[in-house]
Amino acid sequence: MTKFKLKTPHVFTVVMLLTLITALFTWFVPAGEYQYTLNAEIGREVPIPGTYSRIEQQPQGLWDVLQAPIKGFYEAKDIALFIFIIGGFLALILQSGALDAGIYATIKRYKGKELLIIPILMSVMALGGTTFGLAEETLSFYPLLIPVMLALGFDTLTAIAVILVASNVGVLNSTVNPFATGVASGIAGISIGDGMFLRLGTLVVQLILLCLIVINYARKIKKNPTLSLVANMREENEKFFLGQDDKAAIEFTPRRKAILIVFGLTFFIMSLGVIPWGSKFGIMIFDNLALAIYNIPFLGMALGKLPALGTWWFGEMSTLFIISTIICGKINGMNEREIITVFLSGVKDMAPVALIVGLSRGLTLVMDAGGMTATMLYWGEMALTNLHQGFFIISAYIFFFPLALLVPSTSGLATLTMPIFIPLAEFADVPPSLVVTAFQSASGMANLITPTSSVVMGGLTLARIDYPIWLKFCSKIFLVLFVTTCIELLIGLYI
What is the span of the domain harbouring residue 331? Predict the structure, then answer.
């Protein structure tokens, strides 16, 4: 008798089903809207507390569901293009053998102490999250880190945990992150530094605990690979992600070392480019440098007006990776046809990841078109009115979570919620900085699992991990984050 085995649905199917369910809710959840006003502090329109009103129901039908991924792809085209270009760049790096050689050198260096790599990398990712909101940029790290983790005897879940969990713990405890703390603090009328030390202390505690969880999981997998939650895909993943292991393929030649140097510099420059040095931190050295280069006779005009580091986003990052692709190709001795052929093969491999970005964004569009977002915000406004301090801040934290699941953008969620929650906090005698902490903590937790996030769904697609498997892996992590954050918020009331 053949045993029936229930197959896990593809991540594309999961997102489309959730989009359909959201559309069904728009038939029953009352549609509403707030009046908006311009907040000069952040230069954005924000909702006015107490102005919620019901509007005509906006039910979303089958056509709206089917069109949502298309509209979502249009909205996220900058991210999708970035993913395509990253794919082409990495295909060339892999073709050169530089990455295989680097992985082999790493294995030799950390022989017997492979677990040390995990806390080191998680600390780096958390630092990026807490300072400049490392999020979409993490998609470029998966093709690099997954082969390393597999070669060290771990699995793809270990790789995605090191990147996604650690970066989100940083976002969860943002200190100077301008996209979370900066926007929320600006709306609340407080300094970005208010509450910083409380969040910094919590970051250290949570990062240590989560490093221990990931290390413990990785140790078990290395000792017994069958304990992996993705053990059934181990052989297939090793074949897909790891290159050849013959001596010629892993020889660390000067040419391959040079390619890896360019590879590392590319990611370093990308990181410098997205940190808003001038606009948020008043550090104008990169703006002045860009202007000085442009003012050099002839050379400045020939180069064009280079964007200053700190003003970059996906367009500038995509351009950087194209330049690096050409440089690495030339170092590898390739002609223009070979470079383009390899680049296009990598673009093709990234098509599923780019498409999932559109699907994820489409879910949010269906909810917004149905008028549900304002109604959920209004329900929170009513539920939190006249609550005691402790109940208020924990309830606010819990209520931020479902909103963050549906609005994965931290700056977008801050713009939507802070004007409503800050006045309520004043009545409950809760410091505004604690509301900011509750908001970003819920947002960081939600962005670990939300199917509306291109970071989550794109990362899972890159790592070839099914969404339900990721939810199972995250269960213990969620419990640790929830309990420690509640303790943090209650401590914040009395210090």
Answer: 11-276+311-492
